[in-house]
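quick q for whoever's on today - can somebody do inverse folding on this one?? i tried earlier but teh output was garbage lol. tokens:
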């Protein structure tokens, strides 16, 4: 993880801030666009982004869109043909629609949400191309974050986007994309923020994001605040949080209360008694679906990205996070998290857990065992 100084990094909260900023950047594109997303839905938001991409291609911009084959199943059927007809280059990461498998390579997905425009600006975070209100099913927007980046950090972001495009092009067509980068990174200093771009892949950076978290947690002295949608950490991560709490660090976890993956939520809740017994505060977000993957430590270190804190994100999926070493940015993110806790979360205490019906606690235990079994069958353990 290499920190680079001189960046401008703006926090974008929810799709309400993210999509207008993204559309404006796409509409100004002149040479080259890379877009990577796990989900690209055929809804009102998807239609707006498709129109912006098609408009860029019509202006002669080289538009390169990569969507995961599992998360983007509907994209393949509905949006991809329209984009390709308009001259947009589209690649599907692991276009495998076979029945569910726990074989390790089948579980490796493109989970990054990265957009690069003309080498001059990038968006990195956890926000998929999907309606914030889930086509009217949610009363409040899906809770998530991204960052808008300019400056020296564009060098590794652009390099990563181009490298993954060439890799998937080779895997898809057995030929290398030898076309040159049309818009090299504009990496001159434009601000005062020190930041790093951290990816997780299957070769050189298998544990990069996990290690970034663990190093920051080990160095924490005052406060750790983590908001994470799918939270099922292995033993190393759990122990790091417990050790931090034991040395007097205030540890707060903001987790999902409403989930589209009930098994994961029940499995996570099986960890609650252990955390609560060691002084870690737990909040569940119930105002809407929480999709955030962010953290703030000691009012200085923070991260925004796509990586959940579970084995599948930390050790299998292709992820991308930005780590920011800046007190002002940390204050902004910390204040946003505090608003989310105050307006949409409920604190859970040890007495709340003990008051749950025995059946509900039993379901959590069963879900935890099933999750561990799935991890083991995939070839991992929770000892990492």
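ok took a stab at it. sequence:
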């Amino acid at each position: 993880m290499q920190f680079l100084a001189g960046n401008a990094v703006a926090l974008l909260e929810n799709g309400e801030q993210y999509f207008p900023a993204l559309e404006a950047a796409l509409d100004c594109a002149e040479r080259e666009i890379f877009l990577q997303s796990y989900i690209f839905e055929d809804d009102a938001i998807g239609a707006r982004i498709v129109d912006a991409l098609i408009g860029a291609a019509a202006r002669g911009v080289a538009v390169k869109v990569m969507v995961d084959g599992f998360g983007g199943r509907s994209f393949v059927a509905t949006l991809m043909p329209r984009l390709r007809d308009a001259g947009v280059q589209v690649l599907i990461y692991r276009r495998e629609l076979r029945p569910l498998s726990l074989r390790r390579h089948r579980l490796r997905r493109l989970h990054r949400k990265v957009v690069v425009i003309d080498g001059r600006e990038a968006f990195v975070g956890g926000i998929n191309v999907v309606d914030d209100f889930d086509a009217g099913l949610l009363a409040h927007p899906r809770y998530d974050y991204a960052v808008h980046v300019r400056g020296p950090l564009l060098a590794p972001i652009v390099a990563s986007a181009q490298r993954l495009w060439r890799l998937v092009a080779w895997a898809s067509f057995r030929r290398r994309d030898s076309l040159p980068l049309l818009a090299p990174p504009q990496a001159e200093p434009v601000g005062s923020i020190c930041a790093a771009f951290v990816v997780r892949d299957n070769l050189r950076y298998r544990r990069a994001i996990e290690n970034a978290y663990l190093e920051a947690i080990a160095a924490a002295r005052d406060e750790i605040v983590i908001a994470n949608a799918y939270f099922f950490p292995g033993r190393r991560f759990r122990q790091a949080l417990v050790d931090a709490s034991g040395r007097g660090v205030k540890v707060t976890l903001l987790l999902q209360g409403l989930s589209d993956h009930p098994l994961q939520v029940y499995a996570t809740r099986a960890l609650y008694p252990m955390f609560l017994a060691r002084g870690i505060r737990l909040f569940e977000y119930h105002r809407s679906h929480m999709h955030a993957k962010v953290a703030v430590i000691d009012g200085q270190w923070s991260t925004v990205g796509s990586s959940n804190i579970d084995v599948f994100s930390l050790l299998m999926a292709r992820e991308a996070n930005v780590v920011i070493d800046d007190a002002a940015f940390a204050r902004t993110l910390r204040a946003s998290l505090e608003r989310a806790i105050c307006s949409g979360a409920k604190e859970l205490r040890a007495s709340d857990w003990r008051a749950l019906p025995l059946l509900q606690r039993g379901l959590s235990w069963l879900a935890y065992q099933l999750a561990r079994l799935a991890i083991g069958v995939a070839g991992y353990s929770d000892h990492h």
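fwiw The chain has a mean pLDDT of 89. also The longest strand covers residues 4-13. so keep that in mind when u check it
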